[in-house]
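Structure (tokenized):
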């Protein structure tokens, strides 16, 4: 009887199918499609057990490997994407925040490596943090970032475009390729504000974030179908750059904490092979995977050797994907709060399922027993060994804080100090205390979200009052920037500049505050005051294109045309597709009445960014001056449609229509100008147009 039972047991064991292992072939003759889905929580997709219905991504996961325990190295768009493309940690590639940083030229990336090995390269990105000016365009023959413009440096809504606009462009580019290609497709839809189109707005009523995710999946379907018709296999990698907190731990969106809702990301690696008829059996791996492992994985799959000192490891061999593989420590950080608000910097490490967050109030979690990070084990005596192990693992990275590596010449520092500004690098404190810990300050983040919301619903006075309360509680760069921007937009120019001066008095003196103040000084007829600020900032940060553009404008306003052109050329040397520099050059040529060069510059700007309202408006001026009035009127109308706060275009259009003499056509445009243009900047024009409206009242 015993023998029989044993025999039956052995037979049963033999019948258990072996653990399916997805086929991921090493093949130099394949395409690569990297899809990054912005702000995608790991637990959003249905294949991860999430509430968004995502059949296309689920099918991809069934064809390949789905990593169930994958983490980002940062919680912001630009630093994360830089880690994905370079295979480096943020403290290695140096991009620590969405603004004020740019990938150093010459850094090898997935695009530069594959391009030099013969792959055609194309990128289609959908949100402002990935604009070519930040340097991720290196190595891409096509870098399509046409998503319009933001109104200013403190604009709250990031310029972006939706999946239905981008995926067809990405598909079209693939169709045009003859040889092997590498494409990077980035979709921004899941980023706030969440506003899914029908039917997803109804199907996901009350939880629109998941509606956006379902919409993205639907849009990706045709692209995956196209890959199945190609005559060459395609390696497909899908990941998120970071997640979204959705209120967990008191955080609304992302970019503050590094808890699992924002740090853990989905990661799917699959091969779409046109010859494969049988449905494959996918694999789920619970091995810790990291963003820095993606580049080594792609290089391994293509049989390429990359930079020797990459910190990541390939995820390709099945053995590497199975439980029991040696855990790889995963470094992570959140530097935005330090850089924009003066809060404590956040760094941490995941080792196995233990997670350590280094802050003035440190945290230790066991993610296996406490996946929601509710039970901080930092002071539990029984876990003292774990704490020491993790602290050691973190120290082994030798990660430095942003700004620490930047060497500044003594005369630059002295110059900045003489102006009352610090070096323009991170506003670091010598010592951060518990009062600087983001856990104690997260309520202020919620207040900022409330203020942004008030502004977006046009409750300007309430937004201003709330921001004043916020900066009274704690002086923070981002709050001062927003407050100054709201004053500026509502025509309270003096208040806008007073707010920025107040920030500087309170010790908030970073790059963004200085550039914003200098821009406002320039715009209000004080370029001589803007100039020394911008000269100092651009000496410290010679690659800051926003500061360079502002400097060129100030120089032009002071009549230093040659210097201005030289400054704009510096921008174009950093980013040949910087439409703002081209627009600025066009405006300077226009001021010099060099209409041929002005038109050329505006047209180049429109080529770089077809949705540029400024370039469209400038082109209209050239057309008017060269007798092409019908074209000028059409271009101004388009400029206003692209950006209703382009008051120069609105003024030009109104003036031309009044001159043409058809009061019925002119009146609505004149009325719009009088109603919306800020009186602090356009008082005389508003008065003149108001008089015209009174005069022509009752005329047909
Ligand atoms: Zn992002």
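Design, position by position:
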């Amino acid at each position: 009887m015993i023998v029989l039972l044993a025999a039956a047991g052995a037979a049963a064991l033999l019948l258990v199918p072996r653990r399916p292992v997805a086929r991921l072939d090493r093949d130099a003759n394949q395409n690569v499609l990297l899809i990054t889905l912005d702000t995608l929580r790991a637990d959003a997709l249905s294949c991860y057990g999430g509430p968004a219905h995502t059949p296309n991504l689920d099918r991809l996961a069934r064809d390949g490997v789905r990593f169930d325990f994958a983490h980002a190295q940062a919680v912001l768009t630009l630093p994360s994407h830089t880690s994905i493309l370079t295979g480096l940690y943020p403290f290695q590639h140096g991009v620590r925040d969405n603004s004020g940083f740019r990938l150093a030229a010459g850094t090898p990336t997935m695009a530069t490596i594959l391009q030099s090995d013969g792959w055609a390269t194309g990128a289609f990105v959908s949100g402002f943090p990935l604009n070519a000016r930040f340097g991720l365009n290196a190595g891409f023959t096509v870098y399509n970032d046409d998503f319009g413009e933001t109104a200013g440096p403190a604009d709250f809504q990031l310029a972006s475009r939706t999946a239905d606009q981008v995926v067809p462009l990405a598909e079209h580019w693939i169709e045009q390729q003859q040889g092997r290609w590498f494409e990077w497709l980035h979709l921004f839809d899941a980023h706030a504000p969440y506003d899914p189109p029908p039917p997803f707005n109804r199907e996901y009523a009350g939880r629109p974030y998941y509606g956006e995710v379902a919409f993205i999946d639907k849009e990706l379907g045709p692209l995956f179908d196209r890959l199945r018709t190609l005559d060459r296999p395609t390696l497909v990698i899908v990941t998120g750059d970071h997640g979204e907190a959705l209120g967990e731990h008191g955080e609304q969106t992302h970019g503050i904490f590094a808890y699992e809702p924002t740090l853990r990301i989905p990661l799917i690696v699959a091969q779409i092979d046109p010859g494969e008829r049988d449905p494959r059996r996918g694999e789920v791996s619970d091995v810790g995977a990291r963003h820095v492992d993606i580049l080594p994985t792609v290089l391994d799959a293509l049989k390429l050797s990359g930079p020797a000192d990459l910190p990541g490891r390939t995820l390709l061999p099945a053995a590497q994907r199975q439980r029991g593989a040696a855990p790889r420590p995963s470094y992570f950080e959140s530097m935005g709060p330090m850089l924009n608000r003066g809060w404590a910097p956040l760094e941490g490490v995941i080792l196995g399922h233990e997670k350590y967050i280094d802050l003035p109030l440190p945290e230790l979690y066991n993610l296996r027993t406490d996946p929601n990070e509710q039970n901080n084990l930092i002071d539990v005596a029984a876990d003292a060994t774990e704490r020491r192990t993790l602290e050691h693992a973190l120290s082994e990275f030798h990660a430095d804080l942003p700004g620490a590596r930047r060497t500044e010449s003594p005369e630059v520092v002295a110059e900045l100090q003489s102006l009352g500004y610090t070096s323009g690098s991170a506003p670091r404190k010598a010592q951060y205390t518990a009062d600087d810990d983001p856990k104690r300050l997260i309520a202020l983040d919620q207040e900022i979200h409330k203020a942004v919301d008030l502004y977006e619903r046009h409750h300007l006075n309430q937004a201003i009052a709330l921001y004043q309360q916020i900066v009274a509680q704690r002086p923070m760069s981002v709050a001062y920037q927003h407050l100054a921007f709201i004053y500026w937009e509502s025509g309270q120019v003096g208040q806008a500049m007073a707010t920025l001066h107040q920030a500087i008095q309170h010790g908030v003196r970073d790059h963004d505050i200085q550039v914003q103040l200098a821009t406002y000084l320039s715009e209000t007829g004080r370029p001589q005051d803007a100039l020394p600020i911008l000269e100092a900032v651009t000496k410290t940060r010679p690659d800051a294109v926003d500061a360079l553009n502002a400097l060129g404008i100030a120089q032009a306003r002071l009549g230093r045309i040659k210097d201005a052109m030289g400054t704009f050329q510096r921008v174009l040397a950093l980013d040949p597709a910087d439409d703002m520099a081209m627009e600025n050059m066009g405006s300077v040529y226009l001021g010099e009445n060099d209409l041929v060069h002005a038109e050329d510059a505006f047209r180049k700007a429109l080529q770089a960014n077809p949705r540029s309202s400024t370039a469209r408006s400038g082109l209209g001026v050239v057309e008017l001056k060269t007798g092409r009035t019908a074209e000028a009127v059409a271009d101004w109308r388009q400029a206003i449609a692209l950006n209703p706060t382009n008051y120069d275009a609105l003024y030009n259009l109104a003036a031309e229509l009044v001159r043409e003499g058809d009061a019925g056509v002119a009146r609505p445009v004149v009325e719009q100008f009088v109603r919306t243009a800020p009186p602090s900047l356009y008082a005389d024009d508003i008065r003149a147009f108001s008089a015209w409206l009174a005069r022509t009242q009752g005329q047909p």
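Reviewer-requested clarification: The domain at 31-321 is CATH 3.40.720.10 (Alkaline Phosphatase, subunit A). The chain has a mean pLDDT of 89.
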